[in-house]
Design brief:
The chain is built from eleven helices and 16 strands. By secondary structure, it is of the alpha/beta class. The protein has a single domain, classed as Alpha-Beta Barrel (TIM Barrel), CATH 3.20.20. The strands form two sheets. Strands 1, 2, 3, 4, 5, 14, 15 and 16 form an eight-stranded mixed beta sheet that branches. An eight-stranded mixed beta sheet has the order 6-7-8-9-10-11-12-13, sandwiched between helices. The longest helix is centred in the middle third of the chain and has 27 residues.
Length: 410
């Protein structure tokens, strides 16, 4: 308890004290806007005051000893903080009953003390788009910082998009499955009709004496004022979702697997960003190249599509973000492109790129210091800052390691 009170006092003092500016120098600076360079960065309060190449403007400050400084990594799509133990229904708050839940907001169910939060933060991922899933119109996602006491003070954006799980539209092709085919056609038709009617109702909804929280919450998305995050996988799903969003003038963001590159031209023309999750997935089709799932981000970027990476896991997979970017870099992306997929691009998609995603003058001082290239496996994240405040990188897994190291006398 004494230790806890000590850290509360320290953090409070750091947050409120006016200590002037601090310079970090002699580090490899990765801004996510240009190629890396050896230089310095000056922090004042919660913001980046200035940065540059070579020697710093004054001699005081902290020597980074040649280590690599990056913007905070961002996972655009996770259920971190919404999942405790996946096998226990009571701890799964990413999914609600029913198919129409646009009024639900992810941050209201976010658990700041969830073990996965600390584990993810220790790998340099300091922000996440925390999104509901699994119930068709599942609710609204929130942008959350992965440090703090409660979901209120950890919120960056209360809502950023509506989460929509697109129905599977692939039909059985064998003649013996004709009955199943008919049932599937009916199911698809019913789902799309339900979706169309819901958006039509929301567009025509006018607040009056009778308030309907569902239609009111859905309205800005139905009118194309805010993005709709659509989860698709199969080609038929992607094609169907593209047609529907164009017809209804919806503003989409696709969370997609390895077939999404076939639609790169259309996505680029309509300025539809992609959150790609199939980096570690095996190819289901025998005729595909063995490395296709690693090359899809480059194929999309070459066509002009904005791409962010996400493991698409429920909670614990967000720590893999840096590894995903490194694997894709090995299959054609430049260092800068690979870094942008886990920093600047997700910030743009989540609508927070004015304050996060890159190291620039005036932006939040949210940074990660690594012993080497952060997109490689071996280098270790040694320090991290969130809005100018140095963060604790301890986590549940490190505590377990230390516990058994001592127990075994290693």
């Amino acid at each position: 308890m004494r230790r806890l009170l000590f850290w509360i006092l320290v953090c409070t003092t750091l947050a409120w004290a006016d200590t002037g500016s601090t310079i970090l120098h002699n580090g490899v600076i990765h801004t996510a806007k240009e190629e890396a360079f050896t230089g310095w960065i000056e922090i004042e309060g919660t913001r980046i005051k200035d940065l540059g190449r070579g020697e710093p403007p004054r001699s005081d400050g902290y020597d980074l000893h040649g280590m690599h400084l990056y913007p905070a990594l961002i996972d655009a799509d996770s259920a971190i903080g919404l999942t405790g133990v996946e096998s226990l229904r009571a701890t799964r708050d990413y999914k609600e009953v029913g198919r129409l839940n646009p009024n639900l907001v992810a941050r209201n169910a976010f658990r700041a003390e969830a073990p996965a939060v600390g584990v993810t933060r220790s790998q340099g991922v300091l922000y996440s788009g925390v999104n509901p899933r699994g119930s068709f119109l599942a609710g609204q996602g929130s942008v959350i910082r992965l440090w703090g006491w409660t979901w209120e003070d950890m919120t960056v954006r209360p809502t950023w998009a509506l989460s929509l799980d697109w129905p599977r539209v692939t039909l059985p092709v064998e003649k013996k499955e004709e009955k199943k085919r008919d049932e599937k056609v009916e199911e698809i038709g019913e789902s799309l009709f339900f979706l169309q009617e819901a958006f039509a109702q929301a567009r025509s909804y006018m607040e009056g004496s009778r308030v309907d929280v569902k239609w009111g919450a859905l309205q800005p998305y139905a009118r194309g004022e805010e993005p709709v995050m659509i989860r698709v996988d199969e080609k038929e799903q992607i094609r169907s979702a593209l047609d529907w969003t164009e017809k209804n003038e919806v503003k989409p963001v696709f969370v997609a697997g390895h077939r999404i590159h076939d639609f790169g031209g259309t996505l680029a023309k309509r300025n539809i960003p992609v959150i790609y999750y199939s980096v570690f997935n095996q190819n289901p089709e025998e005729l595909e190249s063995y490395d296709l799932h690693y090359r899809v981000p480059k194929l999309l970027m070459d066509q002009g599509v904005t791409v962010a990476l996400s493991p698409n896991g429920l909670a614990f997979d967000s720590r893999e973000l840096r590894d995903m970017a490194g694997r894709c870099r090995a299959f054609g992306l430049s260092d800068l492109q690979a870094l942008q997929m886990v920093t600047l691009n997700p910030a743009r998609i989540l609508g927070v790129d004015q304050q996060l995603g890159s190291l620039e003058k005036g932006k939040e001082a949210s940074m990660v210091l690594c012993t080497g290239d952060i997109l490689e496996v071996a280098p270790v994240v040694v320090r991290a800052w969130g809005a100018g405040l140095e963060l604790d990188l301890g986590d549940y897994q490190k505590a377990l390691y230390e516990k058994y190291r001592v127990y075994l006398g290693l």
